Automatic annotation (TrEMBL):
It comes from Anncaliia algerae PRA339. It comes from the Eukaryota. This is Serine/threonine-protein phosphatase 2A 55 kDa regulatory subunit B. Keywords: Repeat, WD repeat. GO terms for cellular component: protein phosphatase type 2A complex. GO terms for molecular function: protein phosphatase regulator activity. InterPro entries: PP2A_PR55, WD40_repeat_dom_sf.
């Protein structure tokens, strides 16, 4: 197992062009080739509070040129940075450089502030458009015209005490957008028809004392006609053609002490899902990494950590995960079977 340590906590993890890219809580975005400051600490004059520089999420736009465009967010701002090699275009074309001598420079080309009243949870990009999602709103942007946005969803009630849920993730895919909630629901909408709720999937309820925490949507994937949902302790597999949950895999890695701690502190985890088209991967409490194969058998690795393993990312069939300040490349041979699907 290969392990890389960073100076700050890893807060977001993505792959692009066969490279792993990390966002850190000190506001920087790092690859194996370069790093740059995407966000700096700010002061919110309206709320009289500091806005931390932590990178909540980011994506990369292929410019078709010699530069890459990074779009990232902290709690309140969306920044666009253009990163390019610090050499001339002629040298790049004629290959007059070595990888060791190559340096990069980053330029912030747009900074969108105060576009969300609540903390921005996620960004999702598709075909020149992206959505930014906070607890109660989802905005749609054109990557080529950031002067304004279109509000796709505003679920803020007239009275906050009437609020039934918060949004935990937004996803934009071609002509549809979707979002998950703290109520264990995923709403899928076709933008060609309307932006209001059209298809609603609800994960099953239980009589568990901590059901309110356990069924909150942490992450989900839409693959063809299938919806894969991760809540606190379970992965659900849905057939969208029939809105039918045809399988569920329950993890065993969350202790009662762990759940009670999150319940009392209101510090919810954010367990991500990843896939290599054959297997699904997700983390758990206390350093557990899970794999579900295409026969729905469950495997796990215990990474011997007291911290939650929340971020996972597949890059060209290589699996990466992070705990705290550590990024690990996982060898598939370390997985041990936990539960066989019958």
């Amino acid at each position: 197992m290969e392990e890389t340590f960073f100076s700050s906590f890893i807060t977001s993890l993505h792959s692009y062009n066969n490279k792993i890219i990390v966002g850190l809580d000190d506001g920087t975005i790092r690859t194996d080739e370069f790093s740059f400051t995407a966000h700096e600490k700010e002061f919110d004059t309206l709320e009289s509070v500091d806005i931390p520089e932590k990178v909540n999420d980011f994506f990369i736009v292929d410019s078709g040129s010699f530069h890459q465009q990074f779009v990232s967010c902290n709690d309140k701002s969306i920044n666009v940075n253009k990163v390019r090699p610090n050499i001339s275009c002629i040298d790049i074309i004629e290959n007059n450089y070595t990888k060791e001598s190559l340096s990069y420079r980053a330029e912030c080309t747009s900074s969108l502030k105060n576009m969300h009243n609540y903390n921005i949870e996620s960004l999702s990009y598709s075909n020149d458009y992206f959505i930014s999602t906070d607890y109660l709103r989802i905005n749609l942007w054109n990557i080529h015209n950031l002067s304004h946005s279109y509000n796709l969803l505003d679920c803020k009630p007239k009275k906050l005490e009437e609020m039934e849920y918060v949004i935990t993730k937004g996803l934009l895919m071609n002509d549809s957008f979707s979002y998950g909630t703290s109520n264990g629901e995923v709403f899928i909408n076709d933008l060609r028809i309307k932006s209001t709720n059209q298809n609603k999937i609800v994960i099953p309820k239980s009589e568990d004392l901590y059901e309110e925490i356990l069924r909150m949507i942490h992450d989900y994937l839409i693959i063809e006609n299938n919806l894969i949902i991760r809540d606190m302790n379970t992965v659900y597999f849905y057939d969208l053609r029939m809105n039918d949950c045809f399988n569920r895999i329950i993890f065993d890695g969350l202790s009662i002490d762990y759940i009670e701690k999150h319940f009392k502190t209101n510090s919810f985890g954010n367990f991500k899902l990843s896939t290599d088209k054959h297997n699904f991967f997700s983390g758990g409490g206390e350093g557990i990494l899970y794999k579900i194969d295409n026969q729905y058998n469950l495997f796990s690795i215990d990474l011997k950590s007291e911290e939650s393993l929340e971020l996972v990312c597949n890059n060209n069939n290589d699996l990466f995960c992070s705990i705290g300040k550590s990024l690990m490349k996982i060898d598939d041979s370390y997985f041990k079977e936990v539960k066989k699907n019958i």
